[in-house]
Amino acid sequence: MDALIDNGEIKQIIVVTDAGHGLETGAIEAAKKAYDAGITVSAIGINNPQSNSKKGVQVVKGIAESGGGLWEYSFIEDLSKTMQDLTLKTAGRTIKQAVGRQLKAVIGDEIEDLEPKSKTKIMDFINNYGENINLRCIVVFDVGESMGDNPVIMKKSVIEMFEGLRRRKGKSSIAVIFCTAENSGTYSTACDFTSEVYTLGQELEMIYPDGDISSGSPILKACELMHRYYEV
Questions:
Q1: Which three-class secondary structure state does DSSP give residue 128?
Q2: Which residues lie below 8 Å from residue 164, measured CB to CB, with a gap of 6+?
Q3: How far apart are CA 76 and CA 84, in angstroms?
Q4: Per-position pLDDT tens, the chain of length 232
Q5: What are phi and psi of 120, to 5 degrees?
Q6: Which sequence spans correspond to the domains of the chain?
Q7: Which is deepest, 74, 142, 208, 209, by most CB within 10 Å?
Q8: Single pTM value for the model
């Protein structure tokens, strides 16, 4: 249907950050490269009183806008729900944009230009398609002061978010990458793609693994991880 919907599957990167350190460098440019490669990038900012809130909003918003996604701010205790909601909203918007482009090409009208009955049918189709489409998601954690001392929060948030996504009819799979304040500009793949909650939980037990630490952009690493799956 669309470059962002490949074989009935939507590819997403969700960046979770307090915008306080390493991820900021090149993140907006990296998000644009991901979007150009058919991967939508959304961003969630963590409310952190110790960080520069104005600067943080600019970074979070910039990542999402460059990545063709959505952005949101969240308290740490609401992170799992925010991730789940943002993932589904982003998927819905991706489908709506794809359908809109198809309509424009065929009949020359936008969805908003349709008469009410036809518009309702199109929106019902989009909602139903969103419930059944497969989602492949990579969560990138930019671990700063707001989360760095409590990896349990990250693990719990990802698992709860994933459990919510798996209640859909479509298949969901997830991978996790994190970078830390202690090693600014470095990242590690905490969990490769899985569709099983148990496997995800086991992998995230090693959320600070020794070794496998790389430098560069974790967003671009997420793109490589996504493309490696599709090549296989």
A1: helix
A2: 80, 81, 84
A3: 14
A4: 456 677 778 999 999 987 655 555 588 999 999 999 999 999 998 876 555 566 678 889 999 999 999 999 888 888 889 999 999 999 888 888 888 887 777 777 778 878 888 888 888 888 888 888 899 999 998 766 555 556 677 788 889 999 988 888 889 999 998 876 555 566 777 788 999 988 888 888 765 544 455 556 889 989 988 887 655 4
A5: -60, -40
A6: 9-231
A7: 142
A8: 0.83
